[in-house]
Design a protein that fits this description.
165 residues; 3 strands
């Protein structure tokens, strides 16, 4: 009988990591490193750390964003807020190398699909990290009041991909 492998200690300063299982909390395993006396969960160091949403739902939302190229489409399909999905994208971008390996092996995605996904993530998360300075001429411009547009009806059959038909 083989024992399940234990995760590595997430503390980079730990000199002699010795990880043991330490029960569970909320249905998730907990671990203890005897080398640095640190307690941690099984998702420590992953994009799923401290998320309450199941991993399958996060993966589905990110896959929809990758295939459709739109946070709004993922919001409508999954029911999660636009901002929440954007936060999941930000977290995913911090773990890009590991997620790319998962996309290729587990989800069987092509290199082109993965490249399009990371380009979209870079576009969506880049705006928050690098604020664009406003040109001096914009300070003198006055903005017109917003004009409301008529409601648009959604054709659900047009939203399904060719794979789902």
């Amino acid at each position: 009988m083989t024992l399940p492998s234990l995760p590595a200690c997430p503390n980079p300063a730990c000199e002699q990591p010795h990880v043991i299982r330490n029960g569970s909390s909320g249905g998730r395993r907990r671990y203890h490193c005897r080398g640095c006396d640190r307690f941690f969960g099984e998702t420590a160091g992953t994009p799923m750390y401290r998320l309450h949403t199941p991993a399958a739902e996060v993966a589905q939302a990110l896959l929809i964003v990758m295939r459709r190229g739109s946070l709004r489409a993922a919001e409508e399909i999954t029911g999660h807020k636009y901002e929440t999905i954007g936060e999941w994208l930000r977290r995913a971008s911090e773990h890009a190398e590991a997620l790319t390996a998962v996309f290729t092996q587990d989800l069987h995605l092509s290199t082109v699909e993965i490249d399009e996904f990371w380009s979209f993530v870079r576009k969506k998360t880049g705006n928050r990290t690098k604020p664009m300075p406003a040109p001096a001429s914009d300070a003198l411009c006055k903005t017109a009041p917003a004009v409301s547009s008529p409601p648009v009806s959604l054709d659900v059959s047009a939203m399904t991909s060719s794979h789902e038909r």
